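Table 4 source record.
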Amino acid sequence: KLDKWDDVEIKTEFSEHFETVRRFIQNDTVRAIKAFQLPGALRKMFDYTLQEIRKRRFPDAVAADDMSQEQVLFSPMLYAVVMGIFVPMLRDPAKYAGDEVFLKDCKEHISDESFLHNITQLANLFEAIPKTSEERVRDGEDESLINMAKTLKVEMLKTIMEQVTGVVDDTDTQLTVDLYVSHFDRTPHVVSMRTPTLMKLSNLLSENLSKLRLNQKDAVDSLCERIGKWTQQQIEEAEANQVMHNFVMNTRFLFQEDTLVICNSSHCPVPARLSSAGPAGASEKPKLIITYEGDQNMKYSHGNLEDLFCKIEPLAPETKTFNQLEAEFEKLKDDCVSGQPPNFSLANDFMKGINAILELKNQEATTEDLLEWMANSVNERDRHRKYLKQVEKGMRTIVEAKERHQKELEQAKTELGQAIHFSKTLVLPQEILDKAKSYGSRARFETVAKQLGNGEDFGRTMVGTQAGVSYSPQMSKTMMQLKKEGILHSVDEWLSGVDRVGGTVRFTFIQADTGINMTVSVSRVKAGKTVSNNVKQVHITEDQLRELRRKEDGSIV
């Protein structure tokens, strides 16, 4: 078709299609971006990131040709959203459009070549969004692509800023509250992970230990060193034969640890040995909540001025430089000394303020630096105030968990007492016995209860074993059953002869703390009664059990 068109027709066709793409970007794509909602956890993480960026005061965080100074601070969040969410989905539509993500209606488009081509070009456009104008020109990108990327960049920055600004980051609060609530929860908490995931996580930690290491004796560092680096071949082999690993979390670790601290790096309540202070932190007093410390490096110079500004009247409008501020402080100090009565305390504060100004001059700081630090300090104190308010509310959650835990303990105590009382006699409630009789059956415990009632206290264990019940898990099978199942290979000739003369050889396995107790018994019928005798007792240790587990199927031991 293009071969029959002249240059004018081709240019017209291209302009029409380009206008269609431009409208799609400015309307449909922008509308989709505005409707996109960041997950709550990600919004809190971005809020924390923003505060850290502001505290560090990066010198290159200045306005650019396509971003204001405030938008520049959100550039790392923009990059994370684009390259961590949008681009991966566009680069792998087969994974993110199908049954796996409950989008089966989109599945049919994955095989459409024109659809895949458009998705790929859209991914290229999104990859250009986080770039600066200089980077786009350096990469030789088309001017029309650059303009569309600028449009999307502005809209995405607005969307991220709207969703992050004003968010209440209660992560520190929830960590503190959950720490105590977890100790009032006796339910086991299990984390399940597949082998390849664990191997990739181990490699990821090993590659970034220099950034993750908290102290000289870091526990994660030590574990990664012992595990070593997994090769790609080992990971692929694990993916071919995946195994699920279950980890029972020690959520009540305070019962085993001596000291609890709030780690200065992670802000998490952890045992001292897992904090940034390391084992040395064990000598510190236990910290139950995060305390506000502020910027200790600036406390002398900036802090003295901030405290002083709270005590005095507003400064003269013409005071705009450090020299003018120093001169005004000198005048106010003299007024305090010469006043009636003199105010030597405030005069001393003015003297500290003057020394702070000299310190700022030596640091070559500007008035903007001072005001920015004070603004950040106010924000930090306000964040800590909100944290304490949240902890105060969280105290109610902790109290409720404590009361619930106390009720559960009382119930468990009652149930344990009932179980102990029942174990002494094994006498079932009459209602259960009557129900069993109505079905023409007899409860097994009824027989055992009668045998226990006739036996002495010292004979209860043997009576229970003979009746088929035990304090420990047990299993009983005849010799013929074990042979049919391929478990028993051969026995002594005299035992085989017992079966031939009508007797029964029975193997009983009882689990013990140190292994398994095996009892071999022989039963015969004499004068119409079954007589049973134990002929052998064997204890299989834990080491022997481990050896048995290592044996291949079909091995004879």
